Amino acid sequence: MRMIMTADYEEWTDEKGRMHIRSNEGAKCPVWQSDLKVRDSKERIVKFPNRPGKTKLAILRMVCKSCGTLHSELPYTVAPYKRHARETIESVINEGEESPL
Ligand SMILES: [Zn+2]
Q: From ligand 1's centre to the CA of 67, what distance in Å?
């Protein structure tokens, strides 16, 4: 599973208290610059540096129309500057990593 970081996104919280994000940039496969088709979403527990406690994040999983790779879209805020947040989210994702399709 590959991660696509997005800095320009909408976020909202559903009735179950899960946070969702959707990129305004139009996610593309970083390798082929191809469109991605939404497949499903996976719930992950994420520690945001700018939020107290842990956040349930519904991460969108998308399949590349060219290479078939499964990509996940993540808000940039969880990774770039805060070492702790990056380690947290990487370990959470590696734990539940699945082979694409
Ligand atoms: Zn691709």
A: 4
